[in-house]
Fold this protein.
Amino acid sequence: MTSKLKSIMEQAEVPIMEEDIVLYLGASHGVTANIIAGIVGEKGFVFCLDLSYDTMPELLKLCEKNRNMCPLLFDASQPGQYKERVTEVDLIYQDLAQKSQAGILKRNAEMFLREGGHFILIIKTQSIDTVKSPEEVLKEVKEELKEFEIKTIDINRTHAKHYAIIGKK
Amino acid sequence: MGLAELRELNIRETREKLDSLSDEVKLFRLLHLHDEIVKSIGRLARSEAVDKTDDVLSEALDSMEKLKAKYEQEISALCSNAAPRTAKLLGHILAAKVLYLAGGLRKLASMPSSKIQVLGAEKAFFKHLKKDSRPPKQGIIFQHIKVKESENKGKAARQLASEIMKTARIDFFRK
C-alpha cells in the first residue's frame, strides 16, 4: 500500500514548499502528516487535525517528538471551533471520509488559507455516494469547486475509487 | 501568538481532552480491545498452519492470555463503578457488552425490557419487522449462563431482560 501523496507526486507537481505552514485535515495516525512535516522542514509547520479518540494517542506521541507538528482534536466540518488554534496557512491537505468533502474544504479554505495558497483534496467517492459512479461524483465535486483553479489527478490505480484535486485560491 | 506557543497550547489541550474521556467511553474502548485479543487468541489456537507444540507460540499465547486478564480486570473495575447492580447480575464483561449495545447507561435505563431482550439481534429483529420471519427470542443476553443452559430459552431471556431493566434503572437513578 503506497501513500496517496506519493501516488499524486508520481503524476503531478505537488505544491508543498519548504517553510510552508500546512493544515492537515484528517491526519489519523499521522503517517502522511509526518512526511509533509519532513518536506516543509524545521521552519515550516503542520497542524494535524483529527476527530478520532482512537488514533489521537499515537498522533500526540508523534507530535511531541517533532517540533514542527501539533495535534488538534476537533471536527473539521466546524472550523469556527478551532479558529483560534490555527494561524493562516499556505496549504490545506484534506483526506476525510465525509459526505460533504468539498463543502468542508471550502469552509476551511475561506477561514485559514492565504490568498494564492494551494490545497490538495483527496476525494473518496465512496464516502459521498455509493450508488453513483465515481466519475459522476467527481463531476459534482468539480462543480462545487469551480471558483478555484483546479487540476484533477486520477489515483485509481493505487487507491480504488479515489481522485485527487490540486487547487489554488 | 507564535507557532511554538500555539503548539504547546494545542498539545496540552489535546492531552487534557484525551484524559477527560468519560468512564463509559473508556469502558467501550477497553471492551473493543478485549474483543480483539479474544479473537486473535482464537485465531491462533484454531489455525492449522501453526505448530501447536512450538514453544514460542505457547509463550505468545500465554502473554496474550495475561493481556486479556488485564483488560478483564480493568473492565470489571470500570463496569462495577458505572453500573454496579447490572454488573453483579450479568457479570462484568456481559454487562459491559449490554451497555455498549445500548449506547450507555442513560439509554439502557430508558429502554423497555423487550428492547433489552433483543439487543444485539438487530438483524433478525428488523428482518422480522420487514418480512414475515419469526422474532428473535434473545440477543446478546444469550451469553448469560442461565439463558444458555435453560430448557426454555425464550422464557429465561424474557425474565433476565426484565431484571436488567430494573437494575439498570436503579443504577442510573439512585446516584
